[in-house]
Specification:
This protein is α/β, with parallel strands linked by helices. The chain contains 17 helices and 27 strands. The radius of gyration is 23 Å and the shape is globular. The structure holds 5'-O-[(R)-(benzoyloxy)(hydroxy)phosphoryl]adenosine.
C-alpha cells in the first residue's frame, strides 16, 4: 500500500478483521454522486435533486459532471494524487463539488472550518505541505482573498489558490475545469482526507480518514438512522465538521441518493423554512442551537414530526433534551462523536429518556470502548474513568506527529480521548466530564495551549492560562488568567492582539482575570483545576 507518509495504518490483523466483517468494502469516496447520476433506474436518475441551497437546486447529473471537470482541471494545474489541498468553504454546493473532485483526483482535502483565519490556515497548510487552497471571496467581516495572500506568503508549497466568487489575484474556482479524463483509482485503504481534531493537548492535530473507514461510517450511520434515497438531510452546522459531513450528513445523504440541504447557518429563520420546504428528515445540531430551536419553535408554524435530530458535540442538559418532543415534535438522538472516528449514539427507537441521559451505544459491534483509571487500569463496571477507544473508524495515529502519538495512544492502539465517561447498566455510554485541556465553547473546541501561546506574545503578559467557565447558552466560555506587568492589558487589548494574530473569533477570550501568580501543581504545571475553581469562587486564594 502506497500510504501517504505520516499516516499510521491499522495493523494488518485489524485491517483483515474489519474487511472480513464487511466494514471495509473497498469503496472510494470519489464514487460519491456517480451511481445516482449514471444509473437509469427509478431512484437512480441523473435528473434527481442532490443538493439544495437557498440559491438553487442541483441534480446528481450536474454535480457528477462538474466534479469530473474540476478533477480534470486540478490535474491540469499539476495537483497530483496524494497532494493535500486546504478547503475552506461554507455550506455551499461548491464545497460538495470540490471535495468529490479532490477525491476523484486522489488529492486530499484538509477541511478547515469557516471561522478559521490566517493563523489556522497557515498552520494547516504548513503542517501538511498543502499545494493549494480553495476558499471563497468574502464572508461578512473577512476577505478570504486577503487571508489567502498571507497564507501563501507563509507557505512555499502552496502553488494555487482557487476562489469561489470574485477571485481577485487568484484563480476563479469556476474557471478551473477541463474535459473529464480517466483518473487512477486511489487505494481504498489510503487517506482520503483530513479532519481537524478538537484536540487533546498542544495544537490541533490532523486526523487522516481513509476511503474505507469513512465510507463505512457513512453507510453505518445512514443505516442506523434509516436514511435512504427518499430522505433529505439538512446541514445546519458547518459541513466541514464531521457531524454534518458524515454521520451520515451530507456525504452520507449523497452516498444513498438522498438530498443534501445546505443551510448557511443554523438560525431558525433559515433552517426552519428549508426543513419545511424540503421535508427534511434528519439534521445535526449542537446543544446551544437545539436550545435556540426549542425556544423559537412556537414562532414558526412548522411540522417537524418526521424529523430526527442528532445532537452532540458538547454537554446536552437532560431538561433540554426532554423539551424537544413537546416543542418541536421531533425525535432526538444523542451523539458522542469525535472527528477521530468514534461515534456512539442513541438510536431513534431507544426512547426519549435514553436520549436525554446517555450517549447510547457504539456505531459498530467491533468498536471497543475502555474506561480506565489514572494508571490505565479498567475501572469497575459503571464507574467513571477516562474513555479509551479503538475500532474500524478510529484513527491509529494523528498525521505526522509520532512523539505526540506515543503519548495519546496506548501501545495496543487505543486512543486516549481525554473524556471522562462511564458505561451504564444497559451498556450505554454516559459522558461525565473531561480531563483534556480543551474548552468546549458551544461545540467549538478551544485548545488552551494554542490560545495561551498567542497571549504570551503581548509584551506585558508574563504568564497566561486559559480555563473554561460555565455559560448558560454555550455550556462553557473561555477565561484568560494572566500574570502581567503594569499597566495590565485589558480584555479588549488581548482580544485585539489575538485577532491581529489571525486567530478565529471563537478562540478570543470571553473574560480576563489578572493575578499575581498562577497556581502550580506539585510537579510544577499550572494547576488548571484550582484556577478554574478560583475564577468561579474566590480569586484572592491565588492573588
Ligand atoms: C464532535 O467532534 P469533535 O471532534 O469536534 O469533538 C470531539 C469532542 C469529544 O472528545 C468530547 O470532548 C466532545 O467533543 N463531545 C461531547 C459530546 N460529543 C462530543 N461532550 C459531551 N457530550 C457529548 N455528547 O463534536 C462530533 C462529531 C461527530 C458527531 C457529533 C459530534
Amino acid at each position: 500500500m502506497a500510504a501517504r507518509k505520516g499516516f499510521t495504518p491499522w495493523p494488518a490483523e485489524f485491517a483483515d478483521r474489519y474487511r472480513k466483517a464487511g466494514y471495509w468494502r473497498g469503496e472510494v469516496l470519489g464514487d460519491l454522486l456517480r451511481p445516482w447520476a449514471d444509473w437509469d433506474a427509478d431512484a437512480r436518475d441523473p435528473g434527481r435533486t442532490a443538493v439544495v441551497t437557498r440559491h438553487g437546486r442541483h441534480t446528481y447529473g450536474e454535480l457528477d459532471a462538474r466534479a469530473d471537470e474540476l478533477a480534470a482541471g486540478l490535474v491540469e494545474l499539476g495537483v497530483r494524487p496524494g497532494d493535500a489541498v486546504v478547503v475552506q468553504l461554507p455550506n455551499t454546493v461548491e464545497f460538495v463539488v470540490t471535495c468529490v473532485a479532490l477525491f476523484r483526483a486522489g488529492a486530499l482535502p484538509v477541511l478547515a472550518l469557516p471561522a478559521h483565519r490566517r493563523a489556522e490556515l497557515t498552520y494547516l497548510a504548513q503542517y501538511v505541505g498543502a499545494v493549494a487552497l480553495v476558499t471563497s471571496d468574502r464572508v461578512p467581516g473577512v476577505d478570504h482573498r486577503a487571508v489567502a495572500q498571507e497564507v501563501r506568503a507563509a507557505c512555499p508549497t502552496l502553488r494555487h489558490v482557487l476562489v469561489v466568487g470574485e477571485p481577485g489575484p487568484f484563480l476563479a474556482w469556476s474557471d478551473v475545469r477541463a474535459p473529464a479524463r480517466e483518473l487512477s483509482r486511489p487505494d481504498p485503504q489510503d487517506v482520503a482526507f483530513f479532519l481537524l481534531s478538537g484536540g487533546t493537548t498542544g495544537l490541533p492535530k490532523l486526523i487522516p480518514r481513509t476511503h474505507d473507514d469513512y465510507a463505512f461510517q457513512l453507510r453505518a450511520t445512514a443505516g442506523a438512522m434509516s436514511f435512504d434515497h427518499r430522505h433529505a438531510y439538512l446541514a445546519a452546522v458547518p459541513v466541514a465538521h464531521n457531524a454534518a459531513l458524515g454521520c451520515p450528513g451530507v456525504l452520507g445523504a449523497l452516498r444513498v441518493g438522498g438530498r443534501a440541504v445546505l443551510s448557511s447557518s443554523p438560525s431558525p429563520d433559515e433552517a426552519f423554512p428549508l426543513m419545511a420546504q424540503e421535508g427534511v428528515t434528519l439534521t445535526t445540531v449542537m446543544p446551544a442551537v437545539l436550545s435556540l430551536w426549542v425556544e423559537t419553535a412556537g414562532l414558526f408554524d412548522v411540522d417537524l414530526s418526521e424529523l430526527v435530530i442528532e445532537v452532540g458535540g458538547a454537554v446536552l442538559h437532560p431538561d433540554l433534551a426532554r423539551a424537544v418532543r413537546p416543542a418541536l415534535g421531533a425525535t432526538l438522538t444523542h451523539w458522542f462523536g469525535m472527528a477521530e472516528g468514534m461515534l456512539c449514539f442513541t438510536r431513534p427507537g431507544d426512547g426519549d429518556e435514553a436520549a436525554a441521559t446517555t450517549q447510547g451505544t457504539p456505531m459498530c459491534a467491533d468498536d471497543e470502548l475502555l474506561v480506565v483509571d489514572a494508571d490505565g487500569a479498567p475501572v469497575p463496571p459503571g464507574e467513571v474513568g477516562e474513555l479509551l477507544v479503538r475500532g474500524p473508524c478510529a484513527l491509529r495515529g494523528y498525521y505526522a506527529v509520532p512523539e505526540h502519538n506515543r503519548t495519546v495512544f496506548t501501545p495496543d492502539g487505543f486512543l486516549r480521548t481525554g473524556d471522562l465517561a462511564r458505561i451504564d447498566a444497559e451498556g450505554r455510554l454516559v459522558i461525565s466530564g473531561r480531563i483534556k485541556d480543551v474548552i468546549n465553547r458551544g461545540g467549538e473546541k478551544v485548545m488552551a495551549d494554542e490560545v495561551e501561546g498567542h497571549l504570551l506574545a503581548h509584551d506585558r503578559v508574563r504568564a497566561a492560562a486559559v480555563v473554561g467557565i460555565p455559560d448558560q447558552r454555550l455550556g462553557e466560555k473561555t477565561c484568560a488568567v494572566v500574570v502581567a506587568e503594569d499597566p495590565a492589558p485589558s480584555l479588549m487589548e488581548l482580544r485585539k492582539l489575538l485577532w491581529d494574530r489571525g486567530l478565529a473569533d471563537y478562540k478570543l477570550p470571553d473574560r480576563l482575570e489578572i493575578v499575581e501568580a498562577l497556581p502550580l501543581t506539585t510537579v510544577g504545571k499550572v494547576d488548571k483545576r484550582a484556577l478554574a475553581a478560583a475564577v468561579l469562587g474566590d480569586l484572592s486564594v491565588i492573588r
